[in-house]
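Sample 1 of the test manifest.
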Amino acid sequence: MLPLLLMLSIFMLFRGHNLPGGGFIGGLLASSAIILQMVAFGPKVARRILPVNYLILAAFGVFFGALWGLPALFAGLPYMQAFWLPEPIPGVGKIGTPVLFDIGVYFTVIGVTTKIALLLVEEPILFPFPEMKSVPVDHQEEVA
Amino acid sequence: MLYPIVFIALVASPLALIARLPARSLIAWGLAFIPLTLFGLTLTQAGPVLAGEQVVEEISWVPALGLNLTFTLDGLSLLFALIITGIGTLIVGYAGHYLGADSGLGRFLAYLMLFMGAMLGVVLAGNVLTMFVFWELTSVTSYLLIGYKHDYPDARRGALHSLLVTGGGGLALLVGLLLLGQMVGSYEFRDILAAGDQLRAHSLYPAAVILILLGCFTKSAQIPFHFWLPGAMQAPTPASAFLHSATMVKAGVYLMARLSPALGGTALWDVTLAVVGGATMTFAAIVAMRQFDLKAMLAYTTISMLGALTMQIGLGGKYGAEGVATNILAHALYKSALFMLAGVIDHECGTRDLRRLGGLRRYMPQTMVITALALLSFGGIPIMFGFVAKELMLEAALETDLGATLSILAVAAIAVTAIAYLITGWRLFSNTFLGQRSTAAMQQHVDDPTPGMLIGPGVPAILSLFIPLVLLAPVSTLIAAASAAIYGKPLEVKLALWHGVNPALLVSLSAIVIGVAMFRFAEQLANMRGWPIWLRGDMIFDRLIERTLTGATALTRTLQEGRLRRYILITALTMLIFVGVPFISFGLGAIRFDLDPQLQFYEILAAALIPIGVIATIKARTRLGAIIAVGVVGAMVALLFVLFSAPDLALTQLLIEVLSTVFLLLVFSVLPVRFESFSSAWVRQRDAIVAIAMGILMGGLVLATATNDSFAPLAPFFLENSLDKGKGANVVNVILVDFRGFDTLGEITVLFIALLGIYGLLRLRQGKDDVTPERVPTTATEPLSEPVNTQR
């Protein structure tokens, strides 16, 4: 399920400019996919499948989003004025700074949502029961 | 050429860090070439200024705010710039000797350079907002200089006081300057100075004057804000010499002098300045006379002189303007020399307590001669520059337009101050150089410092003698240019040592006679009973800070006592009061109840399921049931979004619904399955009332927003421009990432900050728990390994 849902989320991200979707929805979709993984197999497995530091991913998203406001500044226009490539790229669609900014939103949403879930799941005070640990590990071995 | 003058010191300040290397005193003199160069550069600009013109340079910085990087050099700026760079050169070289044994010298000199650049910015700025930026920079850099010896609590306290007092004044000043700019319609000094009559007639004039004066009085240590200045003596002596003779504290005087042509001429401005300045001058002079610490003594005389300058601006007139300019120069020269000499004595003897010093005339003859010169100018003895300056001050008091009473009071205050200065000077000199040397109290080996260290105090002390004897003509031109800027009209100035026998001379001479006659009682005067506690501003201020902190803690404890329902209650009540009350008073008329006749039955059904879901949530006995019921509410809201053609919102709503259900399940899995009730019936009724009121308010607000037609709706604009300008057919998304992209950027930033908050809450609490260190998970990847221990 995970690859499929992640593909869908990226699809949502890029089609967002013309049809329902966008960075926020795409990001939520992707993080639901990861969280689904986490609930099913436990956080350790989820971490092994997608070895990503979500805190840094979220920070990167904000940074990346803010970055694409800068070109306008260099051109002497107000911050975040949009720029577009003249021709659409096949398979991706038109690329301009708003789309790139939307990718920043996408990463931020994934990072924040998943990290919060991870923090909760890995909180030893919330989950001090050994069952929580043993079940996913067994499951994972079956899969392997 | 004005830009380099301001920015060279700021940019070159990191260069000063090399002074941490050995041969520090040599490096320091090398670094002194930077302010010396600035002095030279300023002099190259002096020609047209002395002829009565202005040098103006302008760059547009933030045009939307009227913030231009304008720099202007006129007479007053020239006088200050020359003092700052001239004294700065000597201070940098002197600091190399004074702090030669300190490996932090590099850091100290870097702060000093930064400060110098900021100060030059203040006096050269041609725009009030530019000036304010530099003004705040002087507050910050002087905080760093005063707190340089940060391992001493007193140094930290002094630095904090200075920052809080000048910073607080700075806030008042900013508002005052903004008012000024609003009244004139420009933030350029030249426009403000040209609009004097318009300003004085404006209804906001008193407010602006009071706010600006608050800023100036705090900066220039006028009563009752004077207390931070003696505390600032914790700074290393070179910093004290620079900050308190020539620069930092004079910034307030500078601004008052700069604005007096525009704001002066009213009773509010003139009388306030004259009275506050006169009171500060007299009070501080008497306190100074009774000090035992060399630097504390000089600190109070500095406050006194700042009072004198303020008073002269208030007294006004031709002599007032001349007196301000002349006294600024005279004071900068003798006071910087005296501070540096206090540093020399401290450095050589290991103490600066007058009760432990004495008999130094045999060991430090050169120091004694220079000190004598500086003290003679300080005491206003004839043929010294200080005498010329004091005569002008007396003339200003005698010739003032403020009426006979104030004139007589001012003359009397100046006479008392002059007597106090003489006694202070005598005590400083006799306790240090005369009498017997007490070997126990001082270092064993005491003699004159290296010549390099005496250059610093020597040059200004000798200038105090040379200016009236040799350089009177060129200095007169400079003073004329400076006082013209204070007076607002060109002035003919001819400084002279001898004005003939006139009232000023008589007052001056009789003050000298009385002062000298009182020399033999000087020590008795100093040893009289101390001051009552209510005069100790610094103590009161300490308590004020303490109270503020306890008050803030108590308030935080009440508002945020740690229980989630209390937070929600307070948030809801605040909203009910601050949104609900205005809404009921003004907003109710906007609500209209017209039902859409096209309403379909499934739409009504979806809407009706929402309140049912809410009631089910409240009534649920188990947590799982509550979660499912909340899920119904969310799903119905999403359905409504679909029905009313908002697919983006519906998608988002559904995804959020899924995620929050997962989150709730995660948290609830460790809580008991059934709800248990701990709160009393009364509390639950109260919460129910607040919740219902909140629901009605939010519903009303949404209804009012949706049915209000008093504003042009924004939707058509977005619909029309989305494809064209935003290049996207999905209007919602185009709004998010393009039209309102900046909002979205703010939102994702908030999202990230929320994550950091949650991260901190969950992770930091682990460390604080009484878990033994080896049980705390070492890496984030294996936190679940430890609960095994609890199983046993």
